[in-house]
Amino acid sequence: MSTTTGSFQQRSDVAIQDKKLRANFLSAMDGLMEKRDLAFDDKTQLEALRILGAQVRQNALVKLPELLVELETKLTQRGVQVHWAQTPDEAVDIIQSITLKEKAQKIIKGKSMVSEEIHLNDKMEQVGVTCLESDLGEYIVQLAKETPSHIVMPAIHKNTAEIADLLHEKTGIERKEDALYMTEQARQQLRKNFMEADIGLSGVNFAVAETGTLCLVENEGNGRLTTTVPKTHIAIMGIEKVVEKLEDTAPLLSLLTRSATGQPITTYFNMISGPRKENELDGPETVHLVLLDHGRTQMYQDDELLDTLRCIRCAACMNHCPVYTRIGGHAYGFTYPGPIGKILMPHLEGLDDTQSLPTASSLCGACAEVCPVKIPIPDLLVRLREEANHPNPQDSYIKGAGIKRHGMEPVLWSMWRWWHQRGTRYHIMTSMLTKLHFLQPSKLAPWTNKRTLPKMAKKSFHQQMKARTDRLKKGALR
């Protein structure tokens, strides 16, 4: 389900016109790319760590059915109640039933992209339960009545002045463009809500089957408060987040923190293995884990698309993507934006609603180069483009009828294919076009609305190389 209105083309056009938005993203992305580069100063070590991370994730996916059963068994033994949800609606129903049983009126949330995926806040509000975000970025986005534009830094699309205006308007604090002041004020406002909330809800970065441990990575301490102060803790995760052994989390944690924010390690690494015991001073009385499928088993059945499930949600692909940097996350219109969203959302929502996403890429390959678990994102985008153009319901695990092309586009692509199928045709056509270069138009809408049209060379590459070879031969003869 799209989180915004209009088509991708319409949303991206609006985003490109917004100079402030583009400035905010360009500044933020430059900083994030620099931090990641500095965090991985030894490139040989980085490549070895990426290979190890990919192997850890692939090993877990190969054994996924068995590991999920083992995880459920270990967690149940430790007193955690495990729930399985095939669809977002089932996940919401499970959480609503828990709140009804606990007679809960308020949920305090740590950061959870899966809860965004199932649109939990809106669904809980419909039954009279308030969900308050405690992650600072999520808190800012919630105050603005927006959705996250980035999976690690939800409010990255806003600059300091915009956040100062928002907090002053919505919370009444003094308007100061001071990040430390605003953070402290938000902390004070949120503190009492941890004590008042009936339920704490969090995401899960890794779930360890061997020990029955839920791992939560965070910097602000809100995740630890969310999972320990309220009497009930609900964790929600996609079924792919499981790993086999506790030792598997070490390389993934190192890759996640350095890829996401350039940190050697985050401030907190929470390891949750059950509710509070009799001799413990803090922790929830009951713990629930909701395991969500939502199209993930469909991906699991395809040897190529299975790679998508390796993702550890670091957002490095977004930070290095020239498309995402220029339009931001909201233009994509779905929970997961950027390169990972372009290969993930077609599985979750179907190609009918997401057909434009796989084409919103230059296929430059930057996303694959920085992915800490070596997901071949460009290859998967090409695969999805093929699926969208030539849907085959018998062989595809992606629901939808595919892209509906209009106007002259199919004809032009057919001509392009015919032109490039034979070397002789290509040379003849290229030679003709270079001779007619003076007839090239100066504008070609909509391409030139935001770009300068490249000038056609007076000579083709082959002609230039032949001329160069002839000159070298003449020089050699002399």
From TrEMBL:
Q: What keyword terms does UniProt attach to this protein?
A: 4Fe-4S, Electron transport, Iron, Iron-sulfur, Metal-binding, Repeat, Transport
**Basic and acidic residues bias (residue ranges):** 467-478
Q: Which residues form a coiled coil?
A: none
Region described as Disordered: 457-478
Location of the 4Fe-4S ferredoxin-type domain: 302-330
Q: Which Pfam families match?
A: Fer4_8 (PF13183), LUD_dom (PF02589), LutB_C (PF11870)
Q: Which InterPro entries match?
A: 4Fe4S_Fe-S-bd (IPR017896), 4Fe4S_Fe_S_CS (IPR017900), FTHF_cligase-like_sf (IPR024185), Helical_ferredxn (IPR009051), LUD_dom (IPR003741), LutB/LldF (IPR004452), LutB_C (IPR024569), NagB/RpiA_transferase-like (IPR037171)
Classification via SUPFAM superfamilies: alpha-helical ferredoxin (SSF46548), NagB/RpiA/CoA transferase-like (SSF100950)
Highest taxon, organism lineage: Bacteria
- Protein name as annotated: LutB/LldF family L-lactate oxidation iron-sulfur protein
Which organism's genome codes for this protein?
Marinomonas phaeophyticola
